[in-house]
Amino acid sequence: MASSDEWYTPPEIVESLGAFDLDPATSPLAPKHAKRRFFAADDGLSKKWTGRVWLNPPFSDARPWIDRLREHGNGIALVFARTDAKWFIEAISNAGFVFMMLGRVRFLRPERTPSRCPLGCVLIPFGAANIDAIKRSGIRGVMLKTR
Question: What's the pTM value of the predicted model, to 2 decimals?
């Protein structure tokens, strides 16, 4: 994972969405968002995914992570709103919904300083329970049906 990919999700976002079983693409420096975590050295793509997944993938190569979450079918991904990318259109089409977040996310950087994301972000829910979790979360934005 490149250092430019070290953008840790603010805990209040994940906490508002409920408990997660797995965070397959995190860093030892990132806040703990799930019961189990895989770091870059673990190669989370090669591991077995179980339960409800929180995914803030390396933004430099999000596609394989999003494809894996789509196959898994239970979780929420936080990604750039890359409306020009084929993987993004495929992901939101397969999920059936996308949550467009209002404003810019203030991610945490490795030195623990908040840094406003340079682009807009979305949450992509896979599974009905995850759609409901976003709707109940209080995160500002709008849920759009994509199919």
Answer: 0.94
